[in-house]
Design a protein that fits this description.
The complex is a heterotrimer of chains A (795), B (291) and C (167). Helices cover 35% and strands 25% of the residues of chain B. Chain B is an alpha+beta fold and 291 residues long. The chains are: A alpha+beta (795), B alpha+beta (291), C alpha+beta (167).
């Protein structure tokens, strides 16, 4: 196996299949280009000074000593930004966020000043030379107390703001739901917390901002999952003309929603470059990432499930308190302040459902939508899957049997759930049965019974989830007014090689490979002949970026549609070349062929050359095959899955060992099964983290206790089992290639499977529920009969 | 990433040279061995020494050997070397039990036994291990050396009796026949600091426990030891009831604090549960029932 | 102070501050950006390189400690333009997604295979237990290392081809 010749690949029929990734060639050689790898001539380095207090008035900021440091070139404060009307910036949720604090600091870790220096070590040193005087204020840390009459008002920067209330939102039919509950045999109620967590991609957030004073062009290399949205935002916020802004996403070391927002450090770097006339690099350290960038979850949920005494699920109700931190910066489509939480109806045939969500401010970092949540579907699925298990517990029914009894049936699709989502396709019982067969479910239950008799604690937990991904139809879904449609451009060179420019942005999902496969499949060529360009706003069409598993559903659809446009142009040119009419041609074996005469056929490559030649071209084509498109999805796509988790719990210590994890996923047509499986593996590990060890906890004073990987814990190779994957394929009827998204499915489906498993193991102790994370201490406390509240540290 | 403040640096070429450098640069000088306790603290700027005295070149401080009936471990021995040492594992299984769960394999390549002990973190695994083994600590001075029992070595969180100008050079454990040892730890993930951990060493005389050593970490045990439980076990019959009572006594005498890793009552429970498990395993090994 | 470090077979001399971390020396002074950093507390392992045949977390080592010593980074895995079996294994088995943890993982794998040419899945997991991956869920990393072990064995049987392990 020689190196330079490239890497091996398998080919199935057509271009779909486990094709090896093109992007690997640079990464395995250590030649990826990440933001911190970028060097520009004359580059300076930025560092952010952050508040040590959760809530305090700023009395004074003295930057003289920092400015006097011989290697410092600029020190920026909120006051300086105020003069440029840049001290505040809009968030993705119609709120404003401080870029650098002016009046108060509102969370521990909030940005207070920005230093620009000749090297990163000096920038760090200079931070210690800035003297800030604070007047501490009482902090609101417990979201459940944020609306108490005596609670300090955090957002006194907003005119007329008298409390910490952000929004109330609801979905579903309250009257119908109340009626169902009133008439039901059984109502189970359960409070549950989805703790605050953080996506923690391995690469932290950063930027190199380079304002060219001569041309007036701002070039930004940044860790962004949505380069075009960032470009438009920089134009709006910084008052720079958009055609003079170029945003480049180089290689990104994981996004997971953390790299969707624009962070204050980015704007400070831009201002720093404008002030100094030199490029400015700012890359945050891990504690900054954990303490100040977009957190995830933090939903305090009160769930109720109404059922008949024989286990038919009739209705669902949920009341949610959403902790949004000090600024409402969560990133979801404008009309959905609670994201897609109202898909909490789940995978079951319900009569009615209703939910309310109340958002509040607290003295913590902003965010909320991140960590592969599919816009709050992680929270929704956790709620319904836990409630179903609580129902099983109360009725003494088997958790699999209860689900099988209530799952939507294939003939019910397309299915509109009580809160309005139209699920496109699915065969749910088949997926659950496959998972049970793979797991050997009856044998596991027998083993569990034997072990229980011996005082050993083994758990079997199930989760069945329906996801809704691929935001989305532009009339319903926009981010800051930008409709969530995505573009794709396809250029066909004379020799038939093809360049696809897409608007979405890979952070490890393998778009350079999979999108090449999509185009190759449509055009009958090898994916080696398709080059994918992404991540540079100067070279790609507008789109809303990669998050919420939307790349395949939206951008992938755009890629297929633009390839079909090219193919249709090629039909016209091909007909001219073959001297027949376009209707005489059929697409067969990757060529335009005269009907019934396989000797009279042309490939796209041959037609491309002809389009550039002296061939007389008919109406309908101008001289090349290039095309562009914008894809406005008609609906989301609805991948689904059935997960089964087997755990062993040591009751003496509370330690949990995940013995097996079976995951059956259905994401419609799979372009590259190898990449799909990789995405699922990664999401399942997320579940291990969230279920067993992760929480961004605070003490009563608002000190963030999750500021490093010593305390905000990542699952390692030792906690993750060897994942057992299965699949069913139910194509999406409305997607051009029948594909659905998959990137977040496993993160959505795995936490409830693991929690259900541990609680199943603890059933002999009478434990009905315990909140994540199920650390050894928390498991033990649950066994003792006093499950703990996990988001606030014990003082 | 966070980075240290400015610091000066000297490379020691011998133990005497290291001591001379420490004397010259005074109390603001710190020994740099593996650096895997010190450098993280310097990056977070929790400590800001003026001078680092690098002793990584002092190969003569890196060894695991048996001399005069003692297992002797050089302070510069890397965790990985101790884990790899057949001699160490043969005499004291607790050393291998513990090293397997200290930090992670990469950190163990560079962090040292002496460095970990001198860092004196209240949750340090090796502190409990050597407390259980009733080790002696050899501290070199400019004009000689002194030996301190490990239970007198730690004076508080992050504090030991090693004075400025002194260097820990060796840890010694007396080898006695008729016994074995074990370690039991609970963490929240692989490589975590202990939420609670216990080390036990036990020597038998027939069906009686001749002597026992019990070390505890992360639970506020005095000198990382459960002296009252050890006293109870001396002469006690080898029964499950003896072990359970020892666990109870160990738990009664520790002072855990509630924090993110767990509430105090859970840690107290762990002190008992893990003491019992470590004793049980040491016992099985002493009787040849387990490797 | 002046230090000389042999990196991937070549000597590099630079004037550095004692506090300079080895990871920054490699990335910023020598331009070898294949090694990464991802945390502040020596947990993530994105910075793993070899220091004298031993994998270390280069964020927790000072550059001055490497003076007179040898360092091997991901850029030094390839030999004479030929990819190491570990690199091929990672590409063959989809052992990487975003690529950020990959250099550290591969260098640990290379060390493991040099010392344990036929490691079990459990041994592989244990060897990388101090390194975080956020993308792969570790499964394909384990398969990649197994692939490298099996193909190096096959190559040895064939009389040593491009997949020959580093001596």
């Amino acid at each position: 196996m020689t190196a330079a010749a490239g890497l091996p690949s398998d080919r199935m029929d057509g271009a779909y299949g486990p094709v090896r990734r093109k992007e690997d060639a640079r990464f395995i050689r250590g030649q990826g280009l990440f933001v911190d790898d970028i060097q520009r001539p004359g580059m300076l380095y930025g560092a952010v000074l952050r508040s040590p207090l959760a809530h305090a008035r700023i009395v004074s900021i003295d930057t003289a000593a920092a400015l006097a440091h011989p290697r410092v070139r600029a020190v920026i404060t909120g006051q300086a930004l105020q003069h440029r009307e840049l001290a505040w910036m809009p968030t993705l949720s119609q709120d404003v966020q401080a870029v650098l604090a002016t009046d108060k600091v509102r969370f521990q870790g909030q940005e207070v000043a920005f230093v620009v220096a000749e090297d990163s070590y000096s920038a760090r040193d200079a931070l210690e030379l800035i003297i800030v005087e604070y007047e501490p204020l009482p902090a609101v840390i417990d979201a459940r107390k944020a609306l108490d009459p005596a609670a300090p008002v955090i957002r006194d920067d907003l005119a007329g703001r008298l409390d910490n209330h952000i929004f109330d939102w609801q979905a579903g039919d309250q009257a119908a739901t109340d009626a169902v509950f009133a008439a039901a045999d059984v109502v189970v109620t359960q409070d549950m917390l989805y703790p605050r967590s953080h996506p923690a991609p391995l690469e932290t957030c950063g930027i190199v901002a380079d304002m060219d004073r001569v041309s007036g062009k701002l070039t930004v290399w940044s860790t962004t999952q949505a380069p075009h949205v960032h470009r438009t935002l920089y134009a709006l916020v910084a008052g720079l003309p958009e055609h003079k802004i170029r945003v480049i996403s180089p290689d990104i070391g994981g996004g997971f929603g953390n790299k969707v927002p624009i962070y204050p450090g980015y704007l400070c770097a831009v201002v720093g470059s404008i002030l100094t006339g030199r490029p400015v690099k700012w890359v945050e350290d891990r504690s900054e990432n954990l303490m100040s960038t977009s957190f995830a979850r933090d939903y305090h949920m009160h769930g109720e499930l109404a059922a008949s005494s024989d286990g038919r699920i009739l209705g669902l109700r949920a009341r949610v308190l959403a902790d949004h931190g000090a600024f409402n910066g969560s990133a979801q489509p404008t009309k959905f302040p609670a994201g897609f939480f109202h898909i909490f109806t789940g995978s079951y045939d319900l009569r009615a459902a209703h939910c309310t969500v109340t958002g509040v401010y607290t003295n913590k970092a902003p965010g909320g939508v991140a960590y592969s949540c599919s816009f709050r579907i992680t929270e929704a699925v956790y709620l319904v899957e836990r409630l179903v298990d609580v129902l099983a517990y109360e009725l003494g029914m088997d958790a699999a049997e209860l689900r099988m009894k209530n799952l939507l049936r294939p003939e019910q699709f397309p299915y509109t759930c009580p809160t309005g989502w139209e699920y496109d396709s699915g065969d749910y019982p088949r997926a659950l049965q496959l998972a049970m067969d793979m797991a050997g479910y009856p044998q596991l239950r027998r083993e569990q019974a034997e072990k229980r008799a011996r005082g050993e604690h083994m758990g079997i937990g199930i989760s069945f989830f329906t996801e809704g991904v691929g935001a989305g139809p532009r009339r319903h879904m926009d981010i800051l007014g930008l409709g969530m449609a995505d573009g794709a451009d396809l250029r066909v060179h004379p020799t038939g090689k093809v360049v696809l420019a897409i608007s979405c942005q890979t952070q490890g999902q393998g778009h350079e490979t999979t999108f090449a496969q999509i185009v190759a499949q449509e055009l009958g060529m090898s994916s080696d002949d398709v080059e994918v360009v992404h991540g540079d706003t100067d070279r790609t069409p507008f789109g809303l970026g990669t998050y919420g598993s939307r790349s395949t559903p939206v951008s992938g659809a755009a890629a297929a549609m633009v390839a079909r446009k090219v193919r249709e142009r090629a039909r016209i040119v091909g007909a001219a070349l073959l001297e027949v009419g376009p209707a005489d041609l059929e697409w067969e074996n990757g060529r335009w062929q005269v009907r019934g005469d396989r000797d009279q056929a042309k490939t796209i490559a041959e037609i491309a050359m002809a389009a550039h030649s002296s061939l007389e071209l008919p109406d309908g084509v101008e001289g090349h095959l290039d095309a562009s498109t914008v894809y406005n999805p008609p609906n989301l796509t609805y991948p689904f899955g059935a997960y089964i988790c087997v755990t062993d719990v040591d009751a003496g210590t509370g330690e949990v060992k995940i013995r097996r994890f079976i995951a059956v996923d259905d994401c419609g047509v799979r372009i590259n099964p190898m990449i799909v499986e990789g995405q699922i593996h990664g999401g399942l590990a997320d579940g291990v983290g969230m279920a067993l060890m992760q929480v961004m906890a605070f003490d009563a004073d608002g000190n963030c206790l999750g500021g490093s990987f010593m305390d905000y814990l990542m699952p390692t190779s030792m906690e993750c089992p060897s994942w057992e994957l299965g699949q069913t394929v139910t194509p999406s009827p409305h997607h051009p290639i029948g594909a659905k998204g998959v990137g977040e499915s496993a993160t959505v489906g795995s936490p409830p499977a693991i929690v259900n498993s541990v609680l199943d193991a603890l059933r002999p102790f009478g434990v009905r529920h315990a909140d994540m994370p199920l650390t050894p201490a928390n498991v033990w406390c649950a066994i003792q009969g006093h499950p703990v509240r996990t988001d606030l540290a014990i003082p | 990433m966070q980075v240290p403040a400015y610091v000066e640096y000297e490379k020691a070429t011998s133990v005497q040279h290291a001591l001379a450098l420490l004397a010259r640069f005074g109390p603001e000088a710190r020994i740099l061995a593996g650096g895997h306790s010190l450098i993280p603290m310097m990056k977070l700027r929790l400590v800001q020494p003026e001078t680092l005295v690098d002793i990584n070149g002092l190969r003569e401080l890196s060894y695991v050997k048996v001399t005069d009936g003692e297992l002797r471990i050089g302070a510069l021995t890397r965790h990985a070397q101790l884990l790899d040492s057949a001699i160490a594992g043969r005499h004291f299984a607790i050393l291998h039990d513990a090293e397997k769960v200290i930090a992670d394999p990469i950190v163990r390549n560079w962090g040292t036994v002496g460095g970990a002990l001198c860092q004196a973190d209240p949750s340090e695994d090796l502190s409990a291990v050597f407390a259980a083994l009733k080790a002696s600590m050899v501290i070199q001075q400019a004009d000689g050396s002194r030996t301190v029992p490990v239970r007198d070595f730690f004076t508080g969180p992050y504090a030991t009796v090693v004075a400025p100008g002194e260097l820990l050079t060796e840890i010694r454990v007396v080898i006695r026949p008729g016994g074995s040892s074990a370690y039991a730890k609970v963490g929240r993930r692989a490589g975590d600091w202990p939420v609670g951990a216990a080390g036990a060493a036990i020597w038998l005389a027939g069906d009686t426990i001749a002597a026992a050593g019990i070390g505890l970490t992360a639970v506020g045990a005095r000198h990382f030891a459960a002296a009252e439980a050890e006293e109870f076990l001396r002469g006690a019959p080898v029964t499950e009831a003896s072990l359970r009572r020892a666990g109870e006594i160990a738990a009664e005498h520790c002072h855990p604090s509630s924090d993110q890793r767990g509430p105090a009552d859970y840690k107290r429970h762990l002190a008992s549960e893990l003491t019992i498990r470590a004793l049980r395993r040491a016992l099985r090994r002493a009787r040849g029932q387990e490797a | 102070m002046q230090i000389t470090v042999n990196v991937n077979g070549a000597d590099h001399s630079r004037e550095v501050e004692p506090r300079l971390l080895l990871i920054h020396f490699l990335r910023d002074h020598l331009g070898l950006t294949g090694s990464h950093w991802g945390c502040d507390t020596s947990n993530c392992g994105a910075c793993v390189v070899w220091l004298d045949e031993t994998p270390v977390k280069s964020c927790t080592v000072l550059a001055v400690m490497a003076d007179g010593h040898r360092v091997r980074t991901v850029e030094g895995l390839e030999r004479h333009g030929e990819l190491d079996a570990v690199q091929q294994g990672f590409a063959e088995c989809h052992g990487l997604q975003c690529g950020f943890c990959t250099p550290g993982m591969m260098l640990t794998a290379r060390w493991l295979l040099d010392h344990h040419p036929d490691p079990s899945a459990e041994q592989i997991r244990e060897s990388i237990s101090g390194q975080i991956c956020r993308c792969t869920g570790y499964e394909n990393i384990v398969r990649s290392v197994r692939w490298a072990a099996e193909h190096a064995a096959a190559a040895r049987e064939d009389g040593g081809l491009a997949t020959e392990a580093r001596a």
